[in-house]
Design goal:
The chain is mostly helical. Helix content is 70%, strand content 0%. This is Oligoendopeptidase F. It comes from Bacillus thuringiensis subsp. israelensis.
C-alpha cells in the first residue's frame, strides 16, 4: 500500500477503502487482494519494500 501510494495516491486511497470495507470473514489473502496488495512476505518483496522506505528516508534528508 505504501508503494502504491507513492505512485498513485488516488488509487491507493481507493484500494484502502475497498479493503477496509471488505467482509472481515473473508480470508486474509482476499482482503489483501481487495487492497491491491499481494499477500507476499517473500525475501524479494520485503527487500523491495525496504528499498522503497530507505529511498524515501534519503529523499527526506
Amino acid at each position: 500500500m505504501f508503494q502504491i501510494y507513492g505512485e498513485n495516491q488516488e488509487q491507493a486511497i481507493a484500494f484502502f477503502k475497498e479493503g477496509a470495507s471488505s467482509d472481515w470473514n473473508l480470508p486474509i489473502q482476499e482482503i489483501y487482494i481487495n487492497t491491491g496488495v499481494a499477500f507476499d512476505f517473500s525475501e524479494e518483496r520485503i527487500q523491495s519494500t525496504a528499498r522503497a522506505i530507505l529511498d524515501l528516508i534519503n529523499e527526506l534528508k
